[in-house]
Design goal:
Blueprint: H1 4-15, H2 21-40, E1 45-47, E2 53-58, E3 61-71, H3 81-92, H4 96-99, E4 101-107, H5 116-131, E5 140-146, E6 151-155, E7 160-162, H6 165-175, E8 186-192, E9 202-204, H7 207-211, E10 214-215, E11 220-225, E12 230-234, E13 236-237
Parallel strand pairs: 3-8, 4-6, 7-9, 8-11, 10-13
Antiparallel strand pairs: 1-2, 2-3, 4-5, 11-12
């Protein structure tokens, strides 16, 4: 992990430089983003002397890598929470006289975002809590029932946005225009997931998202949620377009 004092020294050097204020802010933001990613990555990464440069230690060989950090914004239409609530309500409506009511639940605060398996676990816990089953509750913190003539599920901290292939591929396309700013070293693209800026509590990574390869001129692609300390590497493949003579 990078020495924090070294990061602070670099920030101080940028702030005392003759660069315009806006450019100083951009360089400091890029440096902090790079430090966040390097500190959460599973392998040993250090920031080099040049901007946007990582030093990657692999089998005693030091490799220099240019890194571009970009924010990934997810469309609000990708909110899958309502879909999950609808599925739970459909099951409970099979015995509506027994289960009718408004159920407000709150999630435990835990690190990971969701994949298909964990999301199914949460659904099972919500249903079990409503039915009063005695199980080990890993995700659901509490559940309160209010009287109602219908079944309704409300999650107090359960807004989930799905990271779609289209959103990621579009971001890769837009980011590719910045490739010319870098050298001929390997290039990584890190897409930041910020729950606060996206106005959600969690992100969802489908099986297809993790299995399919994205068209990219970057050598590696990552989804990165700093606040949850989660780094997810996504497969990439180079364009196979042939140039006609």
């Amino acid at each position: 992990m990078q020495n924090l004092q070294q990061i602070e020294n670099w920030i101080e050097a940028i702030e005392s430089s003759d660069l315009p204020k806006k450019e100083q802010e951009e360089k400091i933001t890029a440096l902090i983003d790079l430090w966040k990613f390097a500190s959460c990555h599973a392998k040993s990464l250090r920031i080099g002397e040049m901007p946007n440069l990582l030093l990657h230690q692999e089998n005693q060989n030091l490799e220099e890598i240019d890194v571009l950090c970009e924010d990934l914004h997810i469309d609000k239409q990708e909110n899958i929470s309502k879909k999950i609530f609808a599925e739970i309500e459909e099951e409970l409506n099979q015995d509506i006289q027994k289960h009718k009511g408004i159920y407000r639940f709150q999630m435990n605060k835990f690190a990971a975002n969701f994949n298909k398996e964990v999301l199914q676990e949460v659904k099972n816990e919500i249903i079990a809590a409503i039915k009063g089953e005695v199980i080990l509750y890993k995700h659901v913190l509490n559940l309160h029932k209010l009287p109602s003539s219908k079944v309704e599920i409300i999650g107090l901290n359960f807004t989930i946005l799905a990271c779609t292939q289209n959103a990621i591929q579009e971001k890769i396309k837009n980011s590719s225009s910045k490739l010319s700013l870098f050298s001929h070293r390997k290039k990584w693209l890190v897409l930041f997931l910020n729950a606060l800026e996206n106005d959600c509590h969690y992100f969802y990574f489908s099986d297809e998202l993790q299995q399919n390869a994205f068209m990219s001129d970057f050598d590696k692609l990552f989804l990165f949620d700093f606040y949850k300390g989660e780094v997810l590497e996504i497969k990439t493949k180079k364009s196979q377009l042939k140039v006609k003579n």
